Amino acid sequence: MSNVMTLFLKEQMEQWRSLKWIWLPIVFAILGMMQPLMMYYLPEIMGAMGGDGSEQGAAIADLMGVVNAQQVMAGTLSSQFDQLGIIILIVALMGAIISEKNNGMLAFILTRPVEAWQYILAKWFSQALLVFISLGLGYFAAYYYVYLLYGGIQMASIFAGFGIYFVWLLFIVSAVLILGIVFRSTAVVAMIGAGGAIILELVSGASGWGQIFNPAYLSANAVHMIVTGDVKNYFIGNLLISLLFIVVLLGLSILLLTKKNFHIGSSHE
C-alpha cells in the first residue's frame, strides 16, 4: 500500500498546484449559501425593484407560499448541487487521467513498480476526499444559513442526507474516472458525464422498483430524508446496487489500464 499512499500524496500536490483545493470548496460554499439567502430575501429584492417594496414583496411572498427549513435545505441539493454543482464537479475532475495519459506521464508511472489498481485507487481516494470536503463545506454552509433564517432541522436527517448524497457523488467520481481512461478529450468526458448525470436525475423522478438501478435515485432519497426524516421506497436496494456500480466501475478502470493501448500516451496509440 506504500505505492498507493505515494501516488495519493502526489495527487494531493497536483490538486494544490491547480488550486482545486481552494476554488472547488469555495464554489460549493457559495452554491450552498445561495439557496437559503435567495429564498429568504427574494420577496424583498423583487419588491424593491418594483418600487413599492412592502406591497410587491408581500405579494411575491404569498405566491411562493410558506417555505420551511426542510424545503429550503432540500432545495439546496436539488436546485444547486444537482445542477450547477455536478457540472462544476465534472469539469474539475475530468482531466485527472486524460492529461497524464496524453503527455505520457501515465505510461511513465506504470513502467515503475506501480500496479494499475494502485494508480486507480490513489486517484479515486484523492478525488473522493476533495469531493467530500467541498460538498461538506457547501452542505453545512447551507444548513448554517437555513438555521439562522428558517430554524433548525433534526441533525440525524441532516447527516443522513449528506451521507446518501455523497454516495451519489462518489458514483459520478467513478464514472468520470473511467471516462478519462477511455477518451482522450476532456470535452467528450464533460459532455458524456454531465449529460449522463442529467438523464439519470430526470429518470429518478419516476416511480417503481426500477429505480434501484438508478444511482441518481440516491439524490432523491437525500432530499426526501431532509424533508420527511425518512427514505423512499427501494432505498436499501438502490444504495447497495449503487455501491456495487462504483466497485464495478473501479474494476473496469483497473482492467482497462492493464491493456497497453490504454496506459500509454496518445502519441503512442
Helix content: over 70%
Write the element-wise H/E pattern from the N-terminal end onward: HHHHHHHHHHH
Please indicate the percent range of residues in DSSP E strands (runs of 2 or more).
Answer: under 5%
Largest sheet: none
How far the N terminus sits from the C terminus, by CA atoms, comes to 30 Å
Q: What is the total domain count?
A: 1
- The residue-averaged pLDDT reads 87
Q: Strand tally, please?
A: 0
Describe the protein:
This protein has 269 residues and is mainly alpha-helical. It has one domain (3-34, 67-265). It is built from eleven helices and no strands. The protein starts with a helix and ends in a 12-residue tail after the last helix.
Task: Chart the SSEs and their pairings.
Layout: H1 2-17, H2 20-50, H3 53-64, H4 69-93, H5 95-102, H6 105-111, H7 116-149, H8 155-182, H9 186-203, H10 217-228, H11 235-257
A few lines on this structure:
The protein is built from eleven helices and no strands. The protein is mainly alpha-helical and 269 residues long. Mean pLDDT is 87; it is low at 263-269.
Jot down its keywords.
269 residues; mainly alpha; 11 helices; 80% helix; disordered C terminus; transmembrane helix; ABC-type transporter activity; membrane
